[in-house]
TrEMBL record, chains A, B:
Belongs to the NADH dehydrogenase family. It comes from Ferrithrix thermotolerans DSM 19514. Residues 23-338 form the FAD/NAD(P)-binding domain. This is NADH:ubiquinone reductase (non-electrogenic). SUPFAM superfamilies: FAD/NAD(P)-binding domain. InterPro entries: FAD/NAD-bd_sf (IPR036188), FAD/NAD-binding_dom (IPR023753), NDH-2 (IPR045024), NDH2-like_C (IPR054585).
Amino acid sequence: MNWPLFRTKDDTRGLEELNTDRKKVVIVGAGFAGLSAIETLHDKNFDVLLIDRHNFATFQPLLYQVATAGLNPGDVSFPIRTLLRKYPKVRFRQGELVKITPESNLIELEDGSRIGYDYLILAFGATSNYFGIKGAAEYSHAIYTLDDAIEVRNRIFHQFEKAAAHGISDGCLTFVVVGGGATGVEMAGASAELCDRALRTDYTSIPRSLVRVILVEQRSKVLEVFDEALSEYALEELRRRKVEVMLGSTVDEITPDTVHLKGGVEIPYGILIWAAGVGAPPLASTLGLPQGRGGRIVVNPDLRVADHENIFAVGDIAAATSGDELVPQLAQPALQEGRHAGLQIINLAQDLPTSAFSYKDRGIMATIGRRAAVAQLKGGIDLTGWLAWMAWLVLHLITLLGVRNKLSVLINWLWHYVSWGKGPRVILGG
Amino acid sequence: MNWPLFRTKDDTRGLEELNTDRKKVVIVGAGFAGLSAIETLHDKNFDVLLIDRHNFATFQPLLYQVATAGLNPGDVSFPIRTLLRKYPKVRFRQGELVKITPESNLIELEDGSRIGYDYLILAFGATSNYFGIKGAAEYSHAIYTLDDAIEVRNRIFHQFEKAAAHGISDGCLTFVVVGGGATGVEMAGASAELCDRALRTDYTSIPRSLVRVILVEQRSKVLEVFDEALSEYALEELRRRKVEVMLGSTVDEITPDTVHLKGGVEIPYGILIWAAGVGAPPLASTLGLPQGRGGRIVVNPDLRVADHENIFAVGDIAAATSGDELVPQLAQPALQEGRHAGLQIINLAQDLPTSAFSYKDRGIMATIGRRAAVAQLKGGIDLTGWLAWMAWLVLHLITLLGVRNKLSVLINWLWHYVSWGKGPRVILGG
């Protein structure tokens, strides 16, 4: 066997270090968790290789704004090599993980390359969970990747163009969002605002009454994990924006043009967004690692994968716990888990013991629309409305800026965000 | 027959006008020529319908900058409905022209809709001319649409990622540009700059010596239509940027990985750009209209299609003449032709005679790279270098701003343009 396989033959960057006995850390996935691990490890005595199937990182919390034409794709995505410029010792490889051979500390990529590691961090994120509902995977859109968001945006405007050209057939301009969690609420709110603006400025021939945004939620309220008052505020704000919120409604089956609810209600739709659950990508079940609820990889308290000494799983793909509780699949825990895994690797490399991950919950937020959001902050502080929206905005800008580390994004983003009132700028794909 | 078919059933906008006996003008194509016709006609006594296969207009002169990662797709494309907001009487329909029935003044779209017109303006632009060279259409990229430009950009960076991961195989990082006219020179110059920047910042493991940019030109000089001194300056500047300019070289055949020149020279390539000739899109030959050189639609001096009283052809698709000379396929003539067609329709509607089109050539320009361009202005003024580059920049900004009519583009563009020195921001497609 060729060993070590960590360097590819043409890679002369950092050659001197690679010939030393630095430990090799391979990180799979350039999301919040993976990038946060890099921030922790880049200036320590490691050779770090980041692997991602894309050559760009995506700021997932704002993808729904790309989908609803509030932002452009370039505003929420950053070339990984640009991000890594500040970490000269971290290298990047575009590729897809297909196999781990823990016995020999090797991973294999889709192109057949094998790469050796001393420590492996799995941070390849999550995807939709359709709970086996018939037709859900085929006919609905989820918004986990930049391509997903662009596809939804294209679909929305194709429907508008179709309606403008051929008239409005049943349901053709009905947006159905399944799932009343933060993602569903954000998507429903933004869709309603998009419809208002698009009809006012660009599709003046379409009566607003023929455009429907419907949010379907199984439980008796939206934003279930939030305090009662915030959840009620969100419901009210959604309804004020003409979102038809259907609580206590369960999807039974989805056909190409109709959502069938349990109990016999049928909703003809033009666009269907699936925001009902987070699941593990197919990759997770092919790696031979233990999986828990929703396909998440089971990890020990220190975030190492059960029964593996030198493999960590962090972010949405990991069933991380803090105390006895399962950590939610959000950006904040992902950032903290990535950092924790990095710190444990620093410990392990010095033969020091690892410590258990503990999630510091600073609060949760969701935005319903412009000037309307809910924030439930650490210490029992609940915010709604304008103040919560500003908090949401500032928080996302700070995080975005931290990742991108360039003023350009801030300017771009603010500009687009502020000027959005003039109507969405929409470019359809080919 | 349902007549008039001009209004689609749901279109209530401008209802009152449509029931009057205003003349109906249908414009096919939202490029420079089509939009310029609209500017001329929008406030006159006409019902104007614009048809385009995309829902956005593209600023073609800067597409090569999207292809070479200097600009983002959104910087050079504008939603048509946004552009038309200032013309409330002009309507838009996304669709593809498939047939004209001049006897009954009807056009048909790909979805089967038939639309009546009193005057028809064809302005659907041009595409590549491969002159029947084997393999050219299959294996080369041309840059006429936004999708083309994105495809080229993806291809370039896929090649870089491939080289970074697997080493540089023969020709894998060789950019071949066929055609030494303005487009070819711009593309070759921008590619060379992109390579320099990308290697310096993001692909530091790839030696510059293994990256080649080759410009293949059949004639003995580049920029043939420019004055000798400008053409020589361009050649020099290209070579200073390490572009290998192969003059007097004719492409014989193209295979998936090699360009075969007449005389036996073979160039293995990674990316091949076709900038050797402008031709008519397939649509042009299916409409039953007379075609001239390069498939261009033959028009009378007043820009009406030969033998057709009320059909105009303008822009790249028209074989327009000025005096006895064929007008070049560029933005400036397209703008002037669109305006001229509009004015003739105003005349015809009042039973006034039409006049012959006369092209006012204000000069031609081409940019080789940053701070290097050539401009050959009306009155015998030749500019090169920094001054020509500034002239090019200002001219394009003014035109871009005129089309978009919004400050946002200017800011965006300047920002991206100025910050490009930090390296290209590249997002690959899925």
